[in-house]
Design goal:
mainly alpha
Length: about 90
């Protein structure tokens, strides 16, 4: 990092302006309301998540929560697609 950067006054070439795709800070700070539940899991499942969480320096409960959220999101997409197909059949 001791090497000095030399700037030149050359054309930059074709540039393209892109739309802002980053979420607003308020969206980043948003935290979805949680509901506490009691859930019995197998020891092997908990051991797996604890092991993976320690490898990635995170909490195992957070990993399980994200896994469940991903599942729900995927199932919601599947359900919406199925409803769309049902409507097409009914109108045909």
């Amino acid at each position: 990092m001791k090497k000095k950067i030399v700037y030149t006054d050359e054309p930059l070439g074709d540039m393209e302006v892109i739309t802002d795709f980053l979420p607003a800070p308020a969206e980043l700070a948003f935290r979805e309301a949680g509901v506490k539940v009691t859930l019995a899991l197998s020891k092997s499942s908990v051991d797996f998540f604890k092991s993976e969480a320690s490898k990635h320096q995170t909490q195992y409960q957070r990993m399980i929560r994200r896994l469940l959220d991903s599942y729900v999101q995927a199932q919601g997409t599947i359900a919406l697609n199925a409803k769309g197909r049902e409507r097409k059949r009914a109108s045909a």
